[in-house]
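Worked Example 4.2. Consider the chain below.
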Amino acid sequence: MNSQKDTLIYVIKQIGANLFSGKSVLNVSLPVNIFESRSLLERCAASFGKGPEYLMPVADCDPLQQMKNIVTFIATIPTLELLMQKPFNPILGETFQAYIKGIPIYYEQISHHPPISSYYMTCPEFTLYGNLVAFADVSFNSAVGGNEGVMHIIMRNGTHFQCYFPPSQITGLIFGDRQFRGYGRGYVLEKKERMFAEFSI
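Applying the procedure from the previous section yields the following structure tokens:
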């Protein structure tokens, strides 16, 4: 943690320099000791690890039960993605393929500025796809960030849910206790059934 705090002081200085020169806060050179071994695509794919557990059992259920399970699934994503080390940024056109409980998932980096990752996961019970647009807002002792974009989940019985992720906040980057929490609200809607859910994590 002390090593990370020293690194974050360095990063905040670079972010300040970028802001003064008109560059993005995401355009920062970082020391390699703060990185983990995975790329962002692999880490994002792993964050969908609870998808089969919550989506497969409700493939043919009523839309209300499906929505409950989908909201629960979305609430698991930040927890599975949470790690203090930074993943490596994928290059434009980089791909990643994996299986989550036997279900294939595909990722591709389709834009570099802004960073956008496209994903697709399918099985007989459901199809899940969308784009993740990474963003970050860093202040002196905290950061708010996450992924914008719409996740589409189409269940076997034809219901089509659109999901919007809530951002997250990390505090205690330089001093104080390190804490992670949801920041703002997420949304799930199903237009045909005229259903809407608003939630915070």
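The mean pLDDT is 85. The radius of gyration is 18 Å. Compare this with Example 4.1 before moving on.
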